[in-house]
Amino acid sequence: YIMTGTTDGKRLNLRNQKVDTAEMQDTNLKNVDLSGSQMVCADLSDSNLSNSLLVGVSMQWAVMRRVNLTGADLSGSNFENANFKDAILTGANFTGAKLKGADFTCANLTGVKFDSADMEGVILQNANIKGVSVIGVDLSKFDADCALDVCDLFF
What we know:
two-stranded parallel sheet; little secondary structure; disordered N terminus
């Protein structure tokens, strides 16, 4: 169990760690390397993870509301059923990620790479998808209620 408040994320090393419950709301994790960690049901709401490495993390059911993941590398990660509502993900890399059922409602996805990601049932309601890359993604599996402007996507 990990519980933190506002802190300097550079001192928190969770690379390749298994954490059953992580409550890290409003935490500064900028530039932190969490690669390979397992943090099921983690709550990182309102945290700053900009430019962080989350390569191959397993964070199903994570609560990532209003999180800042600008420039973060989340490639090959598992964020199935994660909540990214109102998150800032500008330039983040989700290449090859498992995102089935993830909710990106009202998120800023400008320039995000979702190449070859599993996006079945992903919710993009009112999300900014300008410049999003979806090379190799099966777009037929998107949430039917989610109107996508394909002019903003790179195939």
